[in-house]
Structures are given as structure tokens and as C-alpha cells.
């Protein structure tokens, strides 16, 4: 992801801009989606061909599989890179690059490991559908991608949790086990539009209880999950698609939102004002 992302940003504004999702899809078509031992020189080759004016269809060997991977990677990463605006010295400045953030605020550490698919037994035997980020209680939790708050409140498995849907409706972000007594940014409510980088809540250890506001999790952590939705019937039920976000968490760690705590507010907030054009069009603000 990092290498494809660098090609995208480096060629932004060029006549033959290299879209990182297209580049990843070309490599996915080549390696069958298995990047573990993939020779990245093929990515360099594809990038040079795209820069020379070749189309992806001219480069790929099998358009069917290329289209499959492009749709898949767009579903997962489609809202991560693009144009955004930040305020510097009172002026709004246009930028292009990574506009998705780590779920953990700048200045706060966390540890994690590859735990997707691990066994869970509370309530019923099932697989873990996210990535647990171990950290200190009260760590500010950040909205990864701009979107709409679809769920907020208590869940017997996730404790205090927030669910945010991306604007293109392809990604549903799930942040769970938030702090007892003060789990959320008090300004946040269901239906709100929230910008990437905003503080949405605080790390804790709630959950595994039918009774609200109970710490039944052994280790303080954020459960961070991402559901991919290509069709609305996949939102709830047997057709849900949850993905392993370990590598995404690692990638987003390069872009952490700096936060501060105003004297007149018990909530933390982002230091730098930020907005996206789509966010503004939907009536939101930075």
C-alpha cells in the first residue's frame, strides 16, 4: 500500500496521474491478491507504463480479474486518498494525499497483533472480526474516515461503541469497548456527520455484559473493525463482509490526528481544522 500510495501522491496533478487503487489492482491481478512474496518491481513496471499513457486495460493480462480486484480494493480503500483542506494561519489550504487517520490520536501509543479470526466465546462461539489495539484507558479515539454516525450506544459484545458509515456507503467502521462513564465525545450523536480526524470517543474496556456501563473486558483496548458493503443486504446478517484491518492499521499509523483539550470542555478535539468538499456538500463542517 505504501509504495502504491507514494506513486499516487507523486503524480497528483500530472496528465497521467497514477491512481493507487488501479496500481494495486494491476498487481493483484498479477499475484492473485497474495502480496506476501510479491516482487514489487512489477509495480514499478506498471507505474512506468501508466505514466507513459498506457491504460490499465492495456497493461493487465486478464481484464476480468483486474476489474474484480479494482472493485475490491476500491471498496476497502476508496475513501483514503484525495483532496482535503486544512486551515493554516487562518487560511484554508488545499492538499492532496492521505485523508484517513489512525484510529488512535497522535501522542498516544498502542500495540496490536494479527488477531483477526481468533476464537471468541462470550455469548456464542465465533471468530474475532477486527483488530484489537491495546492502549491506555482514556486514549482519544479518532474517526478514521469522514462519514455518518449510524450506531452509538451500548452493545452486549462491544460495550460502548460507535459505528460510522463512509459517504460512499461502502465502509462501516466499528469502534468498540470504549471507556466506562465517559465513552463518547459528548457533542456526538447518531445521524451526525463527522470528519476524519475528529475525536469520537475514548479507549476503555467495556462490554461482554447485558448490563450497560460494565467493564468485563480483561485488557483495555479498542476493537477496530471494518465491514465492506457492496450491497445494502450485506449490512446485517449472514452475508456480512468483515476484513482483516491489521495492515490498514499499520498504514494509517503514518497519519495520526493531533488533539488538544480546551479548558472549557471536557472533550478532546483535533488541533487542525479539516474538511473535505464532500463533507461540506453534506452539510457538515471541519
Automatic annotation (TrEMBL):
PANTHER family with a match to the protein in the record: L-ALA--D-GLU ENDOPEPTIDASE, PEPTIDASE-RELATED
Keyword annotations from UniProtKB, A to Z: Signal
M23ase beta-sheet core domain residues: 127-227
Gene3D superfamilies in the record: Glucose Permease (Domain IIA)
CDD domains attached to this UniProt entry: M23_peptidase
Organism for this UniProt entry: Qingrenia yutianensis
Superkingdom classification of source: Bacteria
Name of the molecule in the record: M23 family metallopeptidase
One Gene Ontology term of the molecular function aspect: metalloendopeptidase activity
